[in-house]
Design brief:
The structure holds two protein chains of two kinds.
Chain A lengths: L18 H26 L14 H10 L5 E5 L3 H6 L4 H8 L23 E5 L5 H15 L5 E6 L6 H12 L4 E7 L30 E4 L3 H16 L5 E6 L19 H6 L3 H11 L4 H24 L23
Parallel strand pairs in A: 1-2, 1-3, 3-4, 4-6, 5-6
Chain B lengths: L1 E4 H15 L3 E5 L15 H5 L4 E3 L4 H13 L3 E8 L7 H7 L3 H4 L9 E6 L14 H5 L5 E3 L4 H13 L4 E6 L6 E4 L12 E4 L4 E5 L3 H16 L3 E5 L2 E3 L3 H11 L2 E8 L4 H12 L9 E5 L8 H7 L3 H13 L1
Parallel strand pairs in B: 2-3, 2-4, 4-5, 5-7, 6-7, 10-11, 10-13, 13-14
Antiparallel strand pairs in B: 1-8, 6-12, 9-11
The chains are: A alpha/beta, B alpha/beta.
Chain lengths: 341, 326
């Protein structure tokens, strides 16, 4: 297994990652954390309806990849996609508004938490059928290859996805055609409620299968945004050079249950606490401190995020629900839903 | 004007669109170097090259998913699913993805693709390679659904499907592949959502699709010759959008409605047409609408069984005659 360790000691903050990018990555992890925590609080107030699947604890993966992307690169996300959407720069208000089913939401309430989409930010949808978006990501990459476009497509998914057929089909497809696509498995140890190890033939659900597609097995620390960024950058460089796809497994952990309905009683005692010692934001804050970033700078970032989350929350609370006439719009390209004359 | 088989019309239709638009690409299983298992795509690989005409692994989900991703981001893919029965292994894209992404994204995403597939019975392939599954596609909001019955319509409707901004499921009929028809020279472009009166008549309207169209025409000829019953035959051509005006107009003149459907009985497209006519033209009718369908059974392999399962010319004749003379 290739490892991409990222320790604070080599070269100081202005190493290959650099101070500016690190501050951006810290800000983004805090933003994802606080926005999702807010989504959970709003759910308890019955202001976020339907379901929601939180990435609390997994912020470093979305952040590290987003930091390695270029404008025009495309992201395909899952129903646990708030983090990846925010990481592309989609305003918090747009995400919370969608979760709260308001007219200011990303899709004006027509998609909901599981389908966050912001094409202008390269977020080409969040897909709620396990595995569905891996082949779709192949298609986006096929277009780039065919047209000679320089963008690269990334596709995020969970460990549970590695056991569905579309995973296998997409990985083989991408490898055979050397498509510029990066498959990112966020292994948070549970497929939904069941530990992934109980239902998977190999220890590493993604990396352990990479060789079946002629790919290098890549298993990284998904709690460390620097490690994620470096692995992502390598994969983007490879894809842009026409050298084909990568499959990257990020070891991580979700603090909340699978969805809002899941209290996660199945966790062994102490497991959550153990992972919280390796909290991605805690790790990153420590790293910034070691690099000599001032407490005031860190505090300013955190305060700024909180202010923006609060402002977004208030805007969403004040926003109206969607108008009823959008019920039947945008079924077909003519803007309507007519199936007959 | 030249005579062309329905089979060769497929390749001509694809070639017409690939020549016109460099963003049109085509892929599926055995479609490139082998020219397709039904030989419908012979010559395309040689004409357009391996970058635009590609052989895929046996991965129907990857094929349809890739078509969708390519369509979303600027290409106009034509994907082939070898047998329409295989829709069941990639149905997520048909049922959950193609037709929903535009709506769920509030219009941000598009999905201008065509899925071609070989549909229908007559080849003695048994229950998993012979079905008529156009109603599987018809029931899903956001899709368009087309099923041509002639070589000319194959080209014209395929061109319309490729140029359409929405996902189109294009059902070719296996048993029509060897049939021939006159096809004009030059570019052919038709219009989705238009039915065609393929035989005018005064006494009854027979609405049919794909392989059932020539059978309805044969039945109409027999009804005229042997029973002096003058039937109008409507080729639906496009299930979504559905040209209800042509059908309602015909029923308004003939006052009788028969649908001839190859699909098993429950939830066949004819039921939707009967329901529309009952709602909107009830007082035009001189008798109950009649659906002539395959029974609600899996299809058998044996020729003598398969032949009696599908609506036959004689069954259509008999059903129309009994209704009009009772």
């Amino acid at each position: 297994m290739a490892k991409t360790p990222a320790r604070a000691s080599d070269g100081g903050i202005n190493d290959d990652i650099g101070e500016e990018r690190r501050l951006t990555m810290y800000r983004m992890q805090v933003e994802i954390r606080e926005a999702e925590q807010r989504a959970f609080d709003l759910f308890l107030q019955n202001l976020v309806k339907g379901t929601s699947h939180l990435s609390l604890g997994q912020e470093a993966v979305a952040t590290g990849f987003a930091a390695a992307m270029k404008p025009g690169d495309l992201s395909f996300c899952t129903y646990r996609g708030h983090a990846h959407t925010l990481a592309r720069g989609v305003p918090i208000e747009k995400v919370l508004g969608e979760l709260m089913q308001r007219d200011n939401g990303l899709m004006r309430g027509k998609g909901g938490s599981m389908h966050l989409t912001s094409a202008e930010h390269g977020v080409m949808g969040s897909y709620a059928i396990i595995g569905a978006h891996l082949p779709i990501a192949c298609g986006a990459a096929l277009r780039a290859q065919y047209k000679g476009d320089s963008d690269v497509t990334v596709c995020f998914f969970g460990d549970g996805t590695t056991n569905i057929g579309a995973f296998h089909e997409a990985l083989n497809f991408a490898a055979v055609w050397k498509l510029p696509v990066i498959f990112v498995c966020e292994n948070n140890l549970y497929m939904e409620y069941t530990p992934i190890g109980e239902v998977t033939a190999v220890e590493s659900p993604a990396a352990g299968r990479a060789s079946a597609y002629g790919l290098e097995p890549i298993l990284i620390d998904g709690q460390d945004a620097d490690a994620v960024f470096r692995a992502a950058r390598t994969a983007y460089d490879k894809a842009r050079a026409g050298l084909g796809p990568s499959l990257i497994e990020c070891l991580t952990y979700r603090y909340s249950g699978h969805s809002r309905a899941d209290p996660a009683k199945y966790r062994p005692e102490g497991e959550l606490e153990k992972w919280k010692e390796r909290d991605p934001i805690k790790i990153y804050r420590e790293r910034l401190r070691q690099f000599g970033v001032g407490e005031d700078v860190i505090a300013q970032i955190e305060a700024d995020v909180m202010r923006r989350v609060n402002e977004a929350t208030e805007k969403c609370k004040a926003a109206p629900p969607p108008p009823l006439d959008i019920l039947t719009t945008d079924v077909y390209a003519d803007g309507g839903f007519a199936w007959r004359n | 004007m030249a005579e062309l088989t329905y089979r060769d019309a497929v390749a001509r239709g694809i070639a017409q669109e690939m020549t016109r638009d460099p963003d049109v690409i085509f892929f599926g299983e055995d479609v490139a170097k082998a020219g397709g298992v039904f030989k419908t795509t012979v010559g395309l690989y040689e004409q357009f090259g391996g970058k635009r005409v590609r052989d895929c692994p046996i991965s129907e989900q990857a094929i349809l998913g890739a078509a969708m991703g390519a369509a979303m981001t600027g290409l106009k893919p034509i994907a082939e699913i070898m047998f329409s029965d295989f829709f069941a292994v990639c149905f997520d894209y048909i049922a959950n993805e193609f037709g929903k992404s535009r709506y769920m994204s509030n219009g941000q995403l598009k999905c201008p693709l065509v899925v071609r597939t070989a549909n229908g019975a007559g080849s003695r392939f048994g229950a998993q390679h012979s079905q008529s599954v156009e109603n599987w596609a018809m029931m899903i909001p956001g899709l368009k659904v087309v099923a041509p019955s002639t070589p000319r319509d194959v080209i014209g409707l395929l061109a319309a499907a490729v140029r359409d901004p929405d996902p189109v499921i294009f059902f070719e009929h296996k048993s029509l592949y060897p049939t021939k028809g006159e096809v004009p020279d030059g570019e052919i472009i038709d219009t989705l959502g238009t039915a065609r009166i393929v035989r005018p008549g005064n006494d009854a309207t027979i609405v049919a699709l794909a392989l059932m169209v020539p059978r309805a025409l044969d039945a109409a000829a027999k009804l005229k010759a042997e029973h002096s019953i003058d039937c109008e035959v409507v080729d639906v051509r496009s299930l979504v959008p559905l040209d209800t005006q042509t059908i309602l107009g015909s029923v308004g003149r003939t006052h009788r409605l028969f649908t001839v459907e190859e699909n098993p009985r429950l939830c066949g497209w004819g039921a939707e047409i009967v329901s529309i006519v009952a709602d909107e033209a009830f007082y035009d009718l001189d008798g109950p609408p009649v659906r002539i369908t395959t029974p609600h059974i899996p299809l058998p392999a044996a020729d003598i069984l398969e032949d009696i399962a599908l609506p036959t010319v004689d069954r259509i004749v008999d059903r129309v005659r009994r209704s009009l003379t009772s």
